[in-house]
Amino acid sequence: MVCLPLDAGAHKFRHMADRRLREFGCEQNLLSRPDGSASFVQGDTTVVVGIYGPAEVKVSKESYDRATLEVILKPKVGLPGVAERSREQFIRETCEAALLTALHPRTSIVLILQVIHDDGSLLSCCLNSACMAAMDAGLNMRCLFCGVTCAIDLDGNIILDPTAKQEKESRAVLTFAIDSVERQVMMSSTKGAFTTAEFHQSIAICQKAAESIFQFYRDSVGRRYSKS
Amino acid sequence: MSSTKERVGCVVLPGDVLTCGSELPEGKRDKLICGPGLRRDVDDVVVCKSGILRHKEPNLYWVDSQQTRYVPAKGEGVIGIVTAKSGDVFKVDIGGSELATLSYLAFEGATKRNRPNVQVGDLVYSQLIIANKDMEPELVCIDSCGRANGMGVFGAGGLLFKVSLGLVRKLLLPQSEVIQDLDSMFPFEMVVGMNGRIWVKSRSTQQTLIVANLLESCEHMTTAQRRDVLRRLSQNCL
Predict the structure, then answer these.
(1) Is the pLDDT of residue B54 over 80?
(2) Which residues of chain B does A54 touch, with a Cβ-Cβ cutoff of 8 Å?
(3) Which of A53, B7, B161, B220 could form a disulfide with A109 if both were Cys (CB 3.0 to 4.6 A apart)?
(4) Phi, psi of B180 (to 5 degrees)
(5) Is residue A16 within 8 angstroms of chain B, CB to CB?
(6) Domains detected in chain B
């Protein structure tokens, strides 16, 4: 409805050199047609999400005990390929775990994500925007979730929220979805070679970083309801 | 994990735990009724929608959230659009996940011989008598005494538009400030459905559009801003 400039809701913070998230911001309810929408910015990575639902469902996709969740990820240019399909699946499974789909049987919830710009940590940005849009749509959720990506470079340093360049130069890229209640890992997606110790260290770093994203969720919802 | 009373009026997010009365013995725990947005999880009450926690005496709690998609609930009055006639029922679009049914006998004075005059595309203000997640919603246009009581077909020459469910609830409050402010400008007719649809009709098309635009923009304004806009409008336009 009313479109605020992005930096009106932007949340800024900085700490230690590479153990910090890039600046991030969000705008909710920016599209008028969908039931819920959000755009999430992480550094230069931007994703816009629209959610429709609970709405009518095609008979072929209907399930009698819960809502059918459909995730569509549109790349910046061209047709969606294997990488998009794989990300769609990660997002769908995370959302299925967080949403209380059993409350709306025989309906469909459609989540459409449009990549505006990809500068690394795309999957985590998609997850964050999906969560914001689901909150905007007023869907019933078990818990909130956020995505955090980290990269391990050739020297074994862990870089939080890497850019596309850092991702390319790194040995491994790990993305985790973290829930807001127990702060546990809901989903993990990894690429490259790493040791068990590095894996556990990455989870710990991402869990710590998730705190600031959850605080940001709370602040932005608070700002949204401050007028009523 | 603070007590429920302290958090009334505050913003809550899905996953927040409201009461931790589990350490108290069975008889001493506070009883509370969970409204929309709250659910019970073993001994705790857990929030499952983002919004503001509201409370009504003695022990009713719910989460007030702004959403646009309607989920049918029993007893609510909604504005439906008749989309099909099939046999002895009308199929009515109420904005939910499936079409609601409305029997042709559920109108005042209707009998098997004397069918109500309802055409496809008509607007009906009706009440939900069956609405749960497992069944098709069902509407009626009569109350329990068989009277129309304001329900039925309406809407010649007015304007129908959609707003968020939060705004509709604000408008339907007894002595709603928004309605009182608008009422002081010029006379108009209005039907408000709990499904987020509003129908307005005024003396001229221009006035109808003014009311519709004001209602749509009310959502994003504070009381002071709204009064200011209304004051300027009544000076300039009328």
Answers:
(1) yes
(2) 69, 71, 97
(3) A53
(4) -60, -40
(5) no
(6) 5-64 (2.40.50.100), 77-154 (2.40.50.140), 159-236 (3.30.1370.10)
